[in-house]
Amino acid sequence: MKKVLVCGPFDEIKRSSFKESNSDLDFLFLEKEKITARLVRQADAVIGNLPIELLKGNPNLEWVQLTSSGADAYVKPGVLGEHTVLTSATGAYGLGIAEYMVAMLLVMMKKIPAYLDNQKQGIWRDEGRVTGLCGKRVLIVGMGNIGTEFAERIRPFGCEIIGIRRRVGKCPAELDELHSMEDLETELARADVTALCLPGTSETYHLFDDRLLSLCKTGSYLINVGRGSVIDTEALTRQVKARKFEGVWLDVCEPEPLPYGHPLYSLPGVILTPHITGGFHLDTTLQKIFEICMQNLKAWQGDGEYRSVVDRNSGYCR
Fold first, then answer.
1. Which CATH architecture has domain 2-91+282-300?
2. Of 13, 117, 123, 150, which has the maximum CB count within 10 A?
């Protein structure tokens, strides 16, 4: 009987479903802190984001299912065996993250932080003119599940939606235009909003450095929900100090957590959240993660195809 080690965010009902639907497998459900290297060596498959130190040196693992969308730490050489299948939870987080994106973008555009600060100080004051999404040019860099969900949800606001992705094919219905990375610099200069939904790979590391950030339209909004490593934090700090952006929201940053006392905490126009959009806060997200795991359990046993298989070379899902 093959052994499956599980440390994902599953309640008793979902754990029972795992067992009942896969009675020929031996499941061990444990908190991440209680999992040892010995238990990992005994497993044939792992569901959950274990520390990479526990996965190293176990070439017999047949399959690893992440409960995260990002897989950058697990594609590094030496972490998994050559023949280990790596799947992620890409497809589970798009809705939850996209809703946060819409909410935080409107929060910045409507000057909500200023009114919250006024309330704390007992000040009754009109903060003046605001802006909105209608008529704005929104650039989404990274058109995977998250970028697509975001595009779908801002469409009713009447904005122009532009997508950037590595390989340009037919423009999806959610977009007005689709471009390749070759057009990124041109599009940054035209965008009123730039939304980064990129994974952490060698190609995206510090992609947004001083030069690229300086090309962004002055007075625009910048949000990042992909990986913090996509933006050079110190370069962004300099650009914010130079008043390049009207508003910046980062749910991810480099490093995480951002050190106490870093200038970004107190610079005007910046909102920081501690990587909450990709968490397990939304019931819909948890259900989708569970469904992906169930489908891939079947695929591991030879019934159907894997979903969200991670390409070890690119870091993207195939």
1. 3-Layer(aba) Sandwich (3.40)
2. 150
